[in-house]
Here is the input.
Amino acid sequence: MCEHMSVAENIFMGRMPTNKFGMVNKNLLIKKSDEILKLFKEPSRPKPNKIIGELSISQKQIVEIARAISLNCKIIILDEPTSSLTESETEILFEIIENLKNNNISVIYISHRLSEIFKLCEKITIMKDGEVIDTLEAEDTNEKEVVNKMVGRDIKNFFPEKANIEDNGRNVILRVENLSRDGYFKDVNFALYDGEILGFSGLTGSGRSEVARAICGIDRKNSGNIFINNNKVAINSYSKSMKYGLVYLTENRKEDGLFLGLDIKRNLTVSGLEKISNKRLLLWVNSRKEIASSKKMVKDLDIRLSSINQKINSLSGGNQQKVIVARWLFVDPKIIILDEPTKGIDVKTKAEIYSLIRQLADNGIGTIIISSELPEIIGLCDRIIVMHEGEIAGILKDKEQSEAKIVALASGIKEK
Here is the structure.
């Protein structure tokens, strides 16, 4: 879409109604756009004269769907439509989809989120390695059967075994005291133990990602102390964070995590160029070292590709995520924070990444997971910190973890 143009102009881009002089008939444009937009409910429905760049992600999706409807389409294909939506925006999208169906428009819904598939779809077509495996009636199957067909085997242990953090002999790798940033979060206190995976959960806007970014020096903080291995550290930039062995994997890999114009090997090694540079000429990359290091990382993380010289944007989402993980492992981190590590990734690759994350923790790397997927956060994390409106609402140990408890804490509901 054209961000600087209006909703109506985007809906009828290239097909705008004109008057007898060939000029755009703005009154007719607004009228025709409004007729289509009335298919969508208030208050999510954008106004025809609203500028696209001022809309939320869910409203932009409405405009895209409205454009398709204006073409008198009979089928709409939605590819991972909720990957960037909040829970409330997702519910709005589901209402829109039901409305489309009621208006005799068919929908093909592509998603890795099985709960959405079962909520919306009558039929489920399962694909694996470029081939159709099966097509099932949704009411006649379940998530376990679908997963098994996607992966090609029965996944009994989808999540790796958790650590026993009750062991008092464990060391504190990271300690955060009274961390605050005005308008985002306040008085955040927690510890990360050796060998555990610590989860952060909460609704969008709860401050979970903002806390991680402040710890790593990406965003500023107003107050608070950070300790790594019981040593107080001053981190005011991400480069300083990396020097202390603290790295952050962004939730938006395409915008903030990958160099889309570079090849795979450079995306793998870019954060640790000193390790593959000529010792005398530090700015001179040793190509042999870069190739050897890249091939080792590709093998270690089982990254599926044709060549390390191909562009990074040619890989699937799961393999792109593996590249980012490999890049940060290349710098030998002490602590790694993964924000939405399996966003937009297929089930098989999810299981591989879960196993890798547990392996990192078992190897002594401090591991923090930020996730909006409750089954993931419960299945993977030894402890879960739940945030609500910038504050820690509760910390749940393994046996205390349930979707009901997390949702209640994230919503600010106090237990009686």
About this structure: The chain has a mean pLDDT of 87. Residues 87-102 form the longest helix (16 residues). The longest strand covers residues 172-181.
